[in-house]
Amino acid sequence: MDATAPTSKWSQLASQNAVIEFIDVTLRGCAQVMFQNNPLTGLFFFAAIFVGGFGEGNPAMAFGCLLGTVVATLFGMHLKDRASWKAGLYGYNGCLVGAALPTFLANTPTLWLCIILGSIVSVIVMICIADILKTWKVAALTAPFVLVTWAMLLASYAFTGLDGSALPTPALAHPLVQDSDLAYSASQFVHSTLYGISEVFLISSVISGLLFLIGLAVESLWAAVFAICGTVLAVLTAMFLGADQASVNNGMYAFSAVLTAIALGSTFNTPSWRVLIYTIVGVIFTVFVQGAMNTVLTPAGIPTLTMPFVLASWLFLVPNKDVMPAHRQ
Amino acid sequence: MDATAPTSKWSQLASQNAVIEFIDVTLRGCAQVMFQNNPLTGLFFFAAIFVGGFGEGNPAMAFGCLLGTVVATLFGMHLKDRASWKAGLYGYNGCLVGAALPTFLANTPTLWLCIILGSIVSVIVMICIADILKTWKVAALTAPFVLVTWAMLLASYAFTGLDGSALPTPALAHPLVQDSDLAYSASQFVHSTLYGISEVFLISSVISGLLFLIGLAVESLWAAVFAICGTVLAVLTAMFLGADQASVNNGMYAFSAVLTAIALGSTFNTPSWRVLIYTIVGVIFTVFVQGAMNTVLTPAGIPTLTMPFVLASWLFLVPNKDVMPAHRQ
Amino acid sequence: MDATAPTSKWSQLASQNAVIEFIDVTLRGCAQVMFQNNPLTGLFFFAAIFVGGFGEGNPAMAFGCLLGTVVATLFGMHLKDRASWKAGLYGYNGCLVGAALPTFLANTPTLWLCIILGSIVSVIVMICIADILKTWKVAALTAPFVLVTWAMLLASYAFTGLDGSALPTPALAHPLVQDSDLAYSASQFVHSTLYGISEVFLISSVISGLLFLIGLAVESLWAAVFAICGTVLAVLTAMFLGADQASVNNGMYAFSAVLTAIALGSTFNTPSWRVLIYTIVGVIFTVFVQGAMNTVLTPAGIPTLTMPFVLASWLFLVPNKDVMPAHRQ
Fold it and tell me: Hey, where's the site called Important for channel permeability on this chain (chains A, B, C) (predicted)?
């Protein structure tokens, strides 16, 4: 997973200059949201984020993303495990905290303090979960991001200083009544699948989706392939099961599945037929977990974020060695 | 826990013929729902399930049970741990998934796809939880069944393709107002206790309850004794605490306690006075956990399934070696 | 953490006389609620509890506290780990169960049976959680108390034999509307901070708060200092974030933070600048977790108890060795 040829000159620079090293690690932090340890991937990802944030009229989200990654990387710099820091593993949760908080909370000075605090705490939670899970050789994935963001979004109901007016209203769950008026076309399908990729960073943008794919392909072609297959399979599964069509169209049933597909298919396994079948089952189950978590979080009034991916992938990664004939560790 | 005398000829056949071995393992899978590693027990259990399913006018539930056990056993056959597979440990969660889904979801083609997917995933979750818990030498119990089924039942609220009209309507909890008109008699008490046993498989049937007891006794007399004592104690505790009488009558406060009693009293400990007292405390506490989970799941609109048993038994099994003078492992 | 000079004569007596040893361990059990292994601390704590219980017109709470500690200590006496028993580590959860149940459930004979059962089960849960967490060298904290009490409070909705009329009514969460009529003064601030300390035992009393502080100082001046700093920082943070003023005034946003401050600042770390900064972040995050849990438990109709402390402290204690240059274990 280490970047080699295209970044060798850059790597040399980074090892000599502290500022360039910091930029390098910050970029890797952004890339690690989709498991890539490559500063160029991170650059494409940040481009996608700024295109998406400004395109959706929410630039705070893009700047929050940058701030969160920087703060988390700064804080992580003072910890013992330099290897994890250098790989950007302390940065990616802060990146997502910085994307999610401005998406659901109003833009106030307290919001920015929350992004700073949340990014710092995300590093602590990262070490905590990584420490616990290394007993079973499983990664923390984006669980630190989800837990810290959930805590702050839930707290916004209790604190007048945090304005969560963009959050869903807490309600009792009820069976879905499909709004059948939504027409469907091939072009809509392509949009949905690309939104599925960009929604990993809470963005609905075709251009961002493409930039994320390019960023993935720069480091790993397999990752890009599994991302595409994951989002297509998830959109089809959600449509087959009769999920809310507006949500399907926005990629809301696909973004967790995209991460499951990359994780199971290319990051923690070497692609093979057995791995492919395992990944397909994992992606389909992720869609069920997405529906289940949508239901169970309705009374809490918070979004699932990427927790369906985290739960489904943990379930499928722990038994990896019992299911797969050989695997990378 | 291995079946010996009455099945020795059968065991020999099973070791020579792949089809008979598969039938053997499928039967053991059903028997493992109540911790018994014996194909004859599984035969009695399947008889009880079909009697109950047809008796209640829900044959889909019986066929679902069979399908779930078969699919889970088929899938488990391809995994590394042959010993677990042979003991039926990959089958029992699929068996319960197949019983639960047709009980709460309408009989559509999608339901049967869900049973197949759920049974496969139940094996993966089984390996995952067993792997995690072996750190503390505790078994996965029926947690894989509960988690997979919960995911699918919760998802039914989000997907029009799954019709969960038999699920409880999500609501806010409120203190119980007892319907005091229900008369009570010795015969009703006997029914309640037998329902408590058959409800482990989501069946309310006196004959099924008796068949389950016979199936238990075939392999372990102690298991049958603890099942009876567990259901009696649970029904009495729930009545003393003033639980909803209709639920008590249907065995809804007893089925988790039955499993706690068998697990603590006979499966994971050798019966003794100390074990008996520990089991009694465990069974009474299971009734509290049942009431607590009924409350906490009210807004989610899903049943507790056997989670009260799982939680109470984990709590009591982890400290086993610190509490018991000697114990089987 | 062992009591030395002021209790040496007492220690000698305790080692010779079983009754005095039992009293000694019971007092240590009470002191361990705030991590102190000192019978004199326990004596001050019990004084604070009785002053508070009678002062608030709820003496049952004080007697429940005593009963819970005694029952848990009695039960723990029969277990293998004598060192934990002698340090009062089996008693503190029973102490809190005995304080919490009479605070939220009506005073009936069943209540007292629940205190006895809950205290016994709290010891079992204590061993269970301690066993699990020792894999990562983290303590169970007050999690056993919270889990057992939650189970019984939730069960009170399902059982007419338990009258939980003092529990909050289950409701859907909604953004806080601040009641701005509450005036604020320096004297109110002092009260709030002292309530923050006494509310660890579910008491709102200035005198109790002072007695708890004296009890802490008897064993560890640092613990008392961190308790004061923790409650002050938590009250200020909650006010800055715009938490419900009535709750802030009653110390409801401070009691978990007080425990986080003592745990992170003095019990599991040796005070230093690095530790101080870590503790400040931990205390501020505990206030967020308190707000989050207030929201998420609204539909369940139960109080958070000290769970915000438990969750925040676990998150900050597991990574301790990766963050701190040196630390006590």
Answer: 306
Contacts of B310 in chain C (CB under 8 A): none
Inter-residue contact C294 to C312 (CB < 8 Å)? no
Q: Which two tokens stand for residue A233?
A: 């399979």
Q: Point out the residue among C284, C295, C314 whose CB comes nearest to the CB of A154.
A: C295
Among the partner-chain residues A242, A281, A294, the one whose CB lies closest to the CB of B120 is A281
Q: B149, B167, B185: which is the final residue of a domain? A: B167
Looking at the complex, does the CB of residue A172 fall below 8 Å from at least one CB of chain B?
A: yes
Of A281-295, B110-124, B308-322, C6-20, the one with minimum mean pLDDT is C6-20
**How many domains are contained in chain C?**
2
Cα A158 to Cα A7, A154, B235, C179, C239: the distances in Å are 47, 7, 41, 13, 11
CB C173 within 8 A of CB C299: yes
A251 and A123 housed in the same domain: no
Q: Per-residue pLDDT tens, chain B, 329 aa: give them.
A: 444 455 588 888 888 899 999 999 999 999 999 999 999 999 999 999 999 999 999 999 999 999 999 999 999 998 989 999 999 999 999 999 999 999 999 999 999 999 999 999 999 999 999 999 999 999 999 999 999 999 999 999 999 999 998 999 999 999 998 776 666 788 899 999 999 999 999 999 999 999 999 999 999 999 999 999 999 999 999 999 999 999 999 999 999 999 999 999 999 888 889 999 999 999 999 999 999 999 999 999 999 999 999 999 999 999 988 887 654 44
Q: Examine the domain organization and report whether A126 and A252 are in the same domain.
A: no
- The verdict on C143 and C232 lying in the same domain is no
Query: What are φ and ψ of residue C254, in 5° steps?
Result: -110, -30
Interface test with B, best of C93, C132, C159, C307 (most B CBs within 10 A): C159
Taking the CA of residue A211 and the nearest CA in chain B, the distance in Å comes to 31
Q: In this structure, how many other beta carbons lie within 10 angstroms of the beta carbon of residue B16?
A: 9
For residues B34 and B122, state if they share a domain.
yes
- Which CATH number characterizes residue C300's domain? 1.10.3430.10
Chains that touch A (3 or more CB pairs under 8 A): B, C
- Identify all chain C residues contacting A124, using CB atoms and an 8 Å cutoff: 281, 315-316, 319, 323
Enter the tokens of residue A298: 């309705």
Question: What residue numbers bound the domain in which C154 lies?
Answer: 1-167
Query: CB-CB: which of A128, A159, A165 is closest to C318?
Result: A128
Q: Give me the sign of the Cα torsion angle A93, A94, A95, A101.
A: positive
Same domain, C147 and C246: no
**C8 and C69 co-located in one domain:** yes
Exposure letters B301-313 (e unless 16+ CB within 10 A, then b): bbbbbbbbbbbbb
Q: Which of A123, A138, A167 is the last residue of a domain?
A: A167
Residue of chain B nearest C76, judged by CA positions: B323
Note whether A211 and A66 are same-domain residues: no
Q: Is the dihedral of CA A128, A134, A135, A141 positive or negative?
A: positive
The shortest CB-CB distance from B162 to any of A241, A299, A316 is to A241
C49 and C186 belong to one structural domain: no
Residues 107-146, chain C: which have Cβ within 8 Å of B?
A: 110, 117, 120-121, 124-125, 127-128, 131-132, 135
